[in-house]
TrEMBL record:
One of its GO terms (molecular function) is zinc ion binding. CDD domains: Zn_ADH_class_III (cd08279). Gene3D superfamilies: Medium-chain alcohol dehydrogenases, catalytic domain, NAD(P)-binding Rossmann-like Domain. This is S-(Hydroxymethyl)glutathione dehydrogenase / alcohol dehydrogenase. Signal peptide: none annotated. One of its GO terms (cellular component) is cytosol. It comes from the Bacteria. It comes from Crystallibacter crystallopoietes. Its cofactor is Zn(2+).
Amino acid sequence: MRAVIVNAAGAGFAVEDIDLADPMPNEIVVEVRASGLCHSDLSIAEQGMGFPMPALLGHEVAGEVVEVGASVTSTKVGDRVVICMVAGCGACRECRAARPYRCQRTANLERNPSQMPRISRNGEALTQFMGVGGFAERILVHENLAIPLSDAVPYDVACLLGCGVVTGAGAAINTAGIRPGDTVAVLGCGGVGLNTIQGAALAGASRIIAVDLQPAKLDLAKKFGATDVVNAGDGDAVEAVRELTGGGVDFAFEVIGMQPTAEQAVRMLAVGGSALLIGVQKPGNRLDLDLFGEIVLPQRRIIGVAMGSTNPHLDIPMFAELYLQGRFNLDDLVSDRITLGEIDRSYQLLAGGAVARAVVTKF
C-alpha cells in the first residue's frame, strides 16, 4: 500500500510502500478518498514535537469503509465516513459528560506492544499519528474514530470536517461560547482561522476582525465573515484592533502557534475578555506578560483549546448539514487538489499563504 512517510524530523515526505495489518474486532479499514493537509502535520514533520519517527502523518480523512472487525457495530462495509482523531473511550468521566476531547484513556483505542502494529514497513512498526495516519491509500483505525457522512457531501470538503472545521468553528461556538453582539479578533487566517471566523459569524458576533500578514488570506477572510481586516505588517496590530473596537475585543483567537501572536491576542482584549490559544506552539514557548497589569487587573482569561472542544459525533453531522443548507462554507476552504507525491510542494505553498487548504484526492 502506498503511503507518505516522514522518516526523521526535517526529512520531508517520502512516498513508500507499507503494510497494513488485518483489522482486530473493533477496528475498520477505510479506503481514503480525501486527506487534508493540516499545518499540525507540517509542524511535526519539521520539528518532531515528541512523536517517534518514522511516522505516517495526516489526520483529516474522508473515505469509504471497506472492511470491518468482527465486533464492529457502528458502521459497515460501504459506509461513507469522516475520520476524527477525537475518539474518546466512551467510559471515563469526561466521555460520559460529553467531553471526549478531554478523554485520558485514548490509549485503550490503540493496539498494545504485544500485538502486531497496524502499520509497518518491512516488519518495522511505524508511528500512526493520532491513531489515523491519513496520508495513505487506506487506513486502519478504531471504529470510534468514524463519523457517518451524508452521501450529499463531497469527500474533498468532508475531510476538513474532521479537524480544521471542528477545531476552528468549535473554538468559537463550543469553547468560547460566543453570543450575539460579541466582538472577536482572529490572528491567522489559514484553514483553521477561516473556520474560526465563520464559526464566530454563525454564533452572531457583531464584529469579527481578521489579522494576518498575507493580503490574499485577508481577502478570503472577508468571504468567510470577517467584518474588518488588519494587515499585521502595516503597523501595530494590537492598537489597530483596539482602535477599531474602542478598547479591545471580547474574544481573541490565536491560530498561528507563535509566542508573539499569543501575547498580542491577550493585549487585544477588552476588560474581561478571553484569549483562546489554538495554534500548535513549539515546545518550550513561554508568554511574557505582566500578570497583574495585563491579566489580573483587566480580568482577562487565557484558554488553551484542543480540537475546538468538539463532540465529533454531534458536531460533524451538524456542520455537514449546515453546509448542505448553504449556511457553512466548505467549498472555498479547498484551494488545491493534489496527489500523494505533491505533499511537500503543497506545504511550501501553504507556508507562503498561497492556499487555504490542499487536499489529497489522487492516491
